[in-house]
Amino acid sequence: MSKIVNCPCGATVRAETDDELISQVQTHAREIHDGMVISREQALEMAKPEA
Ligand SMILES: [Zn+2]
């Protein structure tokens, strides 16, 4: 099942696996949010199953 993260900036990150989602959320945070660091736990907390 896909998971998505709706970032407060309006971006949506979507991935098929937890590892991929975490990596994409971390890359998004680093590139779009000025080097912001997000842990695995934080990324998973933000994630929701895609309806
Ligand atoms: Zn964002």
If you had to describe this structure to a student in words, what would you say it looks like?
The chain has 51 residues and is an alpha+beta fold. It has one domain. It has 2 helices and 3 strands. It has helices spanning 18-32, 40-46; strands at 3-6, 12-15, 48-49. A 3-stranded antiparallel sheet has the order 2-1-3, covered by helices on one side. A hairpin with a 5-residue loop joins strand 1 (3-6) and strand 2 (12-15). The chain is globular and about 30 Å long. The mean pLDDT is 96. The chain binds zinc ion.
| Major sheet details | 3 strands, antiparallel
Q: Unreliable segments (pLDDT under 50, ≥5 consecutive)?
A: none
Give the strand order of the largest sheet, numbering strands 1, 2, ... along the chain.
Answer: 2-1-3
Number of helices: 2
How many domain modules?
1
Distance between the termini: 9 Å
| Strand and helix order | EEHHE
Residue share in β-strands:
15-25%
Apparent shape:
globular
Radius of gyration: 10 Å
* Sheet/helix structural class: alpha+beta
Q: Residue-averaged pLDDT, rounded?
A: 96
Helix content: 40-55%
Q: How many extended strands?
A: 3
Bound molecules: zinc ion
Write the layout of secondary structure elements.
Elements: E1 3-6, E2 12-15, H1 18-32, H2 40-46, E3 48-49
Antiparallel strand pairs: 1-2, 1-3
Short description:
A three-stranded antiparallel beta sheet has the order 2-1-3, covered by helices on one side. With 51 residues, the chain is α+β, with helices and mostly antiparallel strands. The protein has helices at 18-32, 40-46; strands at 3-6, 12-15, 48-49.
